[in-house]
Design goal:
10% strand; alpha/beta; two-stranded parallel ribbon; four-stranded mixed beta sheet
């Protein structure tokens, strides 16, 4: 029979707890924080994953393809929520520093103090269609942590500068063409492009944050794009938005002619054609997902692969 570790709930508590601690550490930078909303989102995700694991434990059966897809994608959802919280906090701190004396006077006249302001209060209106609780009703937008908007003179310049980050749900935007598979799925490009383009038209922001790897099936169930599938998520988004270039920031300097970890003479390739890059991937290179290169090639998008510690112009450029 199948043996399950009864400690999975405790281990999940530890994993989510580490994410919560990171978010709260960021929130301690100031009393004006999005911390509580993000923590709530993390706890909601934890309960969702617990439900999946409980289903499997009760059945005492191996994980099905659907369960594997749902479990495997939670890391992206958790990390996406953490990054969202950090970016909101940074945007908010920048906005507070840009408040004019005139705006300060309006804020005081409204009976508010700067320390009372928060990203939840100052978020700009993101759509003409809003739910009864003030959340934007747009497919693909994470409604769990879409903040409220404050009305009133003097706050306009702050609202425009703060919380210009939206967290998107890839399961509602990137839709598969497969009705049977849950892994290494094909994407319904027309439907996906339309959903992404419609969302960007309705939801104005400076940064759209989309967790990778996860996608949605037409029946609403979760699927995944396969190993390194986040690269393909990025290429799908770039193609839908008509981007000229997509950038992958990673822990290596770019693409080498052979594995630099095992070959002292490995040479960084500053420029590669699409076919050359695909050959390196097919030979076992894991820097990029093959389908991401193919989609970028078909859309005429160049790809830059560079290190997180390198300059913006460094690394490898893949193109025609």
């Amino acid at each position: 029979g199948v043996v399950f570790d009864d400690n999975y709930v405790a281990e999940l508590d530890v994993i989510v707890g580490e994410h919560v601690e990171l978010v709260r550490a960021c929130g301690q930078l100031s009393p004006n924080s999005q911390t509580n909303a993000v923590v709530v989102k993390l706890l909601i995700l934890q309960r969702e994953l617990e439900q999946v694991l409980n289903e499997v434990a009760l059945r005492q059966e191996p994980l099905s393809e659907e369960h594997l897809a749902r479990v495997a994608g939670f890391g992206e959802l958790l990390s996406g929520s953490v990054v969202y919280g950090i970016l909101c906090e940074l945007a908010f701190q920048r906005a507070l520093g840009s408040i004019t004396s005139e705006s300060r006077a309006h804020i005081q006249a409204a009976g508010l103090r700067l320390e009372d302001l928060s990203p939840e209060l100052l978020a700009p209106q993101r759509s003409p269609h809003r739910g009864s609780a003030g959340s934007t009703v747009v497919p693909g937008l994470d409604r769990q942590i879409v903040p409220w908007a404050v009305q009133g003179e003097g706050l306009g310049d702050v609202r425009l500068a703060v919380a210009q980050v939206v967290l998107l749900d890839p399961r509602e935007l990137i839709i598969t063409a497969d009705s049977e598979r849950f892994d290494n799925v094909r994407v319904d490009a027309p439907t996906t492009n339309r959903r992404i383009q419609d969302l960007v038209l309705q939801v104005q922001a400076q940064i759209y944050l989309l967790p990778g790897y996860l996608v949605g099936r037409p029946d609403g169930r979760t699927a995944v794009l396969g190993r390194n599938g986040s690269d393909t998520s990025a290429s799908i988004l770039a193609a839908a938005l008509g981007a000229r270039q997509m950038v992958k920031v990673t822990n290596v300097d770019g693409i080498f002619d052979r594995d630099p970890r095992t070959s002292d003479g490995a040479l960084l390739q500053p420029h590669l054609g699409y076919s050359q890059a695909l050959s390196i991937v097919s030979a076992g290179g894991h820097v990029l997902h093959g389908p991401a290169i193919e989609r970028a090639r078909d859309a005429g998008i160049t790809i830059r692969v560079r290190s997180v510690a390198g300059s913006q112009d460094a690394g490898t450029v893949i193109g025609s």
